[in-house]
Amino acid sequence: MNRFKTRRTSLFFTILISFLVIILLFFTFNVVAFAFFKSKYQDELIRYNRLILQNTAERYNTHFARVKTSLYKIYNDPEVSGFNRQLLTKQDQDVNYLQGKKIIELLRSEVYNPQLFLDNVTLYYQSKEFTLDKEGSSGAEDQFNALYSSGIYPLTFWKSHLAKSANFSMLPVSRFQTTWNVPEKKELLPISFKLPDSHYMVIGYLDIAKSQQAFFDDSENARKFMIADKDGTMLYQSGGEWREERVPQFSEGMNYALKDGIYYFKEQDSEGMTYITAVPNAAMAAQLNRMMVTLLLIFIMSLSIGLAASFYYSKRINRPVKQLITSIINGQKSDLTSSISEFDFINQKIFDLVAEKNVVQSELSSKQSILKSYNYINKLKSINTDINEWKDFIAAEESFTIVLYMLRFRSGSFDDTTLKKDRAAYYFREHISLIFSERFPGCHTFQMEKNQILTVINGRHEKEQIEEVLKELKVVFDRDSQYSLFTVAVSSWFEHSSQFNHAYRQVLEIVRQARLEEETQILLGSRMLPATFTLSPAQDQELNASIQAGDAEGANELLQRFLDEMYMKEASVTQFALFAESIEAKVWKFMDIYKIEQGASWPLKPLMQQLRECCTLDEYKQAYAGIIELAVSLIVEKKGESDPIINFVMDNLHTKYGEELSLDYLADKLNMSSAYLSVYIKEKTGTNFSDHLNDIRIRKAQELLSGTDTSINDVSLQIGYRNITSFNRMFKKWTGMTPSEYRRSAMVAQK
């Protein structure tokens, strides 16, 4: 009885049987799944092939309609019909054959449309036996019997075809020699259009190989494909010739049939075109067999691995358990042979567990505050001080107030002295730490970045007490204002050290609101900022006109007025910096437009750096004056060397982009054709006219959206788009987001 009971409770057999039961359930499930899968897979293959053919029929139907629309447009083009009237009514010497150049451009625009898959489009004028295609003009005899020849479509065929009454005609695929001196031929499907009693027609040659690859991709070459028109005429066959008697009769309501070991699938589109594909049953069976063999091998491997793993892990778990039981019975520590760490842990004595638990508990308790604060400590960029001070602050878990000192180093102030910025910041930090430690014992001062110093004051103190100390420091800071200007922000009172991240963001936001003053500013809270600043479209165009006209004085006068306005309205240092970034981007854009080489524009770089380091209104004015004067001189010098036509176009683009500016308007001013001017601009600048105009407009739209609260509709009108839908579409194409999305992202970035 005891022996029987021991066998029932054996850990080894219990674990092994548990594993085997799981494997048995897995085996049963897979057997059922195999049986069900095999019965359903063939139905899925049939449905899959039917769906492929249905999608192919819809794509071909849509594509044929698109090609017909293209041919109809060409046929009814005024240039095409007008040229036909000339050929009918005039003698050869009176016909303006130069008109054919415009028609050839029209044909090329359709042929080179990648969505149409057209190899060529031919206009056949019977009255003069004259043809036009993408390559030029030729006689009908040369065109159809030599240049673009096919055995079943000679000139005599097209003559008789022109006399027929049908408008659109889709003709069977034939192999065409598309170039007279190249022996290779292409399979093309001719599509023609004409009106009854017409003396000309348009013929499009559809590249059937490209269209089949796009609409009926058969990478395994296992399926054959056929297209027939509504009269049953075979237009195209892939995979060799089909015998019509081999295609089965499809039962009513059925789109597939099996004949001679081949599955045939049929689909008919709305125009009556019939599409048939044939898939050998052997191919479908081979797919099924490959899948079943693969699944069977995976199943056998899984079953084998499962049995082996079950036995191995049952033994591995059972052996140390037996050793532990022996050690418990004997009351002695056992030397385990298992590599499983959990068993070694269980083998430890109770007093060791208790001791370890106490150690862990004590360690966790001491580190609790630091662990809680990790999520925002990791966000701090650097703390240039003793890390133990930071740990002391976190571990204290007290309320606190922080003071942030933002240093704005003066441009050039360190050039003539051995004192470096990092050393100067260190001296400032030491002095701040000394003063605050005397008034508020236990406070901590850290170097956050090279231009940021932070003081953390533990406990609750009135802002008046902190302000009194800061006023004392202001005297020292103002004395060293030739090196750096200070902006000091005081946070609210926070109850717990875990709120440090919020406090830090608060003072950062406050210092960004500082005014452009040449003295230390002490900010005890946020203020309402004036409206954001950016040049209006009229001011922007005036500035562009002055720069392009070489009027540095006029450009500087405009900028000086705008800076004075910003200063009077108490714009923040951040707003001055954002405006400087926009002017810097504008100047570099002009360097790019006029293709001024980097070597020539290199002197602008130190001036741009000086602009970014400006701390006062006078410094900004001096920096802008230097940049504008140098940029204007470079542009004037380059314009003297450059093309006057391009200069005229660019001047108009930058000064009249808010008006209804068009290529026709500029061409009329230059006494040129718009087509020639378009090609000229593209050739000389590498960019077409519309892209130049849209680039200028969208850049200005970005400034207005991010720098003002002007409505999107008003922005559209100010930069020259009279239709808000066109503006939204062009803005998204240019920037990848809608105007409203861009405005939201810009607002987030400025915070």
Question: Would you mind describing this structure in some detail?
Answer:
The chain has 751 residues and is α+β, with helices and mostly antiparallel strands. It has 27 helices and 17 strands. Strands 1, 2, 3, 4, 5, 6 and 7 form a seven-stranded antiparallel β-sheet that branches. The chain has a five-stranded antiparallel β-sheet with strand order 9-8-12-11-10. Helix 2 (11-75) runs antiparallel to helix 8, helix 10 (350-377) crosses helix 11 and helix 16 (552-568) runs antiparallel to helix 20. The longest helix has 65 residues, at 11-75. It is flat and about 110 Å long.
Distance between the termini: 80 Å
* Number of contiguous helices: 27
Mass-distribution shape? flat
Largest sheet: 7 strands, antiparallel
Averaged pLDDT: 78
Parts with pLDDT < 50 across at least 5 consecutive residues = 1-7, 364-384
β-sheet strand percentage: 5-15%
Q: Kindly state the percentage of residues in helix.
A: 55-70%
Structural class: alpha+beta
Give the beta-strand count.
Answer: 17
Gyration radius, rounded: 42 Å
How is this structure best summarized?
The chain has 751 residues and is an alpha+beta fold.
